[in-house]
Backbone:
């Protein structure tokens, strides 16, 4: 083996090997990453009053959950951010839904909001769902998330949460900014873009893999 060949071989290994290793682990992260479970068995909402008059539930759905209480008029910016950055991108996934929790009596304001969202983006809003409850119902549902966050005196907050099909709260337990990330601040376009989009992708990919695996097992 000539010296020049050895030289180029060593240089190739030094440059190419790290790239191969990086691609291997990057591929593994994308294919096998799971979004951590932070709270199990969040309360369901099957018996709540709904805007559509049809029952809504968390079980067997992937849900983006928000609490707007009596504060809907000040949440239009949050709604537009979520609609543009998250809903419009993912709503065609079969079991995906947005569920916004409001105090009873907010039905007219919801209709106005839906009109604004529809005219602003032109997206089918069929997966935007609104439920109405008493103060006690809303507080009880929020407490079942078991987060350190707090509702305002209007039963609202800017954060939204990811609930999986088993009614578990998903989030990050190693967030670079705050450690444990229970929810995403819908007022912050940067947080939605830099964190929430990625985490919704991860959980949807998780269920796609599970669905494909199930089909392989059950197919003849």
Residues:
């Amino acid at each position: 083996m000539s010296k020049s060949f050895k030289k180029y071989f060593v240089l190739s290994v030094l440059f190419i090997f790290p790239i191969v290793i990086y691609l291997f682990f990057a591929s593994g992260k994308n294919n096998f990453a799971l979004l951590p479970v932070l709270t199990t068995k969040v309360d369901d909402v099957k018996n709540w009053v709904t805007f559509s008059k049809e029952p809504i539930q968390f079980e067997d759905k992937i849900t983006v959950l928000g609490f707007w209480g009596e504060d809907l008029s000040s949440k239009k910016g949050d709604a537009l951010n979520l609609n543009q950055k998250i809903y419009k991108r993912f709503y065609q996934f079969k079991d995906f839904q947005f569920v916004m929790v409001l105090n009873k009596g907010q039905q007219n304001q919801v209709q106005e909001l839906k009109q604004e969202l529809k005219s602003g983006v032109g997206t089918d809003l069929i997966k935007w769902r609104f439920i109405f409850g008493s103060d006690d119902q809303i507080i009880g549902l929020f407490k079942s998330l078991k987060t350190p966050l707090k509702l305002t005196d209007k039963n609202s907050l800017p954060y939204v949460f990811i609930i999986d099909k088993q009614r578990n709260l998903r989030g990050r337990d190693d967030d670079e900014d705050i450690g444990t990330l229970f929810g995403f601040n819908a007022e912050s376009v940067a947080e939605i873009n830099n964190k929430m989009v990625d985490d919704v992708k991860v959980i949807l990919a998780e269920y796609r893999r599970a669905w494909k695996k199930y089909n392989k097992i059950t197919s003849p």
Summary: The chain has one domain: 37-218.
